[in-house]
Amino acid sequence: MAAQILAGKEIAEKIKQIVKKDLEQLKTRGIVPKLVAVQVGENPSSLVYLGAQKKSCAAIGIEHEVKNLDGNVSESDLIQFIKNLNEDRTVTGIILQMPLPPSMDVRKVQSTISPEKDVEGVNPANLGWIVYGRPVLAPCTALAVKELIDSTGVNLYGKEVVMVGHSDIVGKPVALLLVDKFATVSICHIGTSDSGMLETHVSRAEILVVAVGKAHLIKGSWVKKDAIVVDVGINKLGDKIVGDVEFEVAKENASWITPVPGGVGPVTTAILLRNTVLAAKMQFLN
Ligand code: NDP
């Protein structure tokens, strides 16, 4: 039997309903969250993300502003700009749009975002809370993956999880969030592929999460019978957007699978709104 579809849009809608209620409560206390996205230079792909942010914030009643800085801005001026936003009490959330100019130390700049305003969870303090098993403002996509897995009702205890990809904002935090629920988590990366072991690992996953950015890297035939598959990847293949997993074949083996598009993406956006409201609460209600 073909897999059930993990419909990101429905899960996102449920999250947004809760966020709306929280937002209304904040507004009765005169608190209106405001998200500021800092963009350095011009980047067409970032424009799409910014547009989506603006639209989803407007739909729910969160203020959103884009601050465009010149592509030649120095790292120290960018850091000072972020510090000023940290000090500004009308700004409750800060997003630093990627990519930054290659000359900049991304981690250094990210670490200057106040942890309480860091709605994307990129500050080392927020990543550190995940290590402690107490995620607060964790990276939105990692939390989205966890929501999608939880929505299947699976008990993670003792489950074989394989995470393909080890980025700071997806692979590593996902692995930590799941290990914390006592799943047995393996993390695969380029070294796994290069050693020819990717299929071996993937094919024993009861829960498979893939965040690489390579169209159809994971062959559908590798997917274990009844596995839960969460595909984070977004790739252009011809005129289509596809994931990292060969969906049409994988869905014949899996019990649950996320579509691309329409799986992880909408949930990530909903979590960004949730983090933004949480950040405002932390600043004004604690
Ligand atoms: P990164 O490029 O930061 O990380 C990719 C990871 O994949 C790295 O750990 C890399 O390992 C690993 N990798 C590369 N090639 C291989 C390979 N052949 N076999 C195994 N592992 C490999 O990407 P992100 O984590 O930021 O994003 C991953 C994908 O998810 C992208 O397509 C992105 O667009 C998408 N995405 C989607 C979101 C959504 O909301 N739907 C949000 C965020 C991302 P190494 O470093 O060792 O090379």
Question: Secondary-structure blueprint of this entry?
Answer:
Elements: E1 4-5, H1 8-28, E2 34-40, H2 44-60, E3 63-69, H3 75-87, E4 93-96, H4 106-110, H5 124-131, H6 140-150, E5 160-164, H7 171-179, E6 184-188, H8 190-194, H9 198-202, E7 207-210, E8 228-231, E9 235-237, E10 240-242, H10 247-253, E11 256-257, H11 264-284
Parallel strand pairs: 1-11, 2-3, 2-4, 5-6, 5-7, 7-8, 8-11
Antiparallel strand pairs: 9-10
The structure holds NADPH dihydro-nicotinamide-adenine-dinucleotide phosphate.
Gyration radius, rounded: 19 Å
Low-confidence runs of at least 5 consecutive residues: none
| Distinct small molecules bound, one entry per kind | NADPH dihydro-nicotinamide-adenine-dinucleotide phosphate
Characterize the overall form: globular
Tally of separate helices: 11
- Class per helix and strand makeup: alpha/beta
User: Main β-sheet: number of strands, strand sense, barrel status?
Assistant: 6 strands, parallel
Major β-sheet strand ordering: 1-11-8-7-5-6
Average pLDDT for all residues: 97
Describe, in plain words, how this protein is organized in 3D.
A hairpin with a 2-residue loop joins strand 9 (235-237) and strand 10 (240-242). Helix 6 (140-150) packs across helix 7 (171-179) and helix 6 packs across helix 11. The chain has 11 helices and 11 strands. It has a 6-stranded parallel β-sheet, sandwiched between helices. A 3-stranded parallel β-sheet has the order 3-2-4, with helices on both faces. It has a two-stranded antiparallel ribbon with strand order 9-10. The chain has 286 residues and is an alpha/beta fold. The mean pLDDT is 97. The protein folds into 2 domains: 31-116, 3-Layer(aba) Sandwich (Rossmann fold); 139-265, 3-Layer(aba) Sandwich (Rossmann fold). Helix content is 43%, strand content 16%. Bound molecules: NADPH dihydro-nicotinamide-adenine-dinucleotide phosphate. NADPH dihydro-nicotinamide-adenine-dinucleotide phosphate (NDP) is lined by residues 141, 164-167, 169-171, 188-190, 192-193, 198, 211-214, 217, 232-235, 264-265, 268.
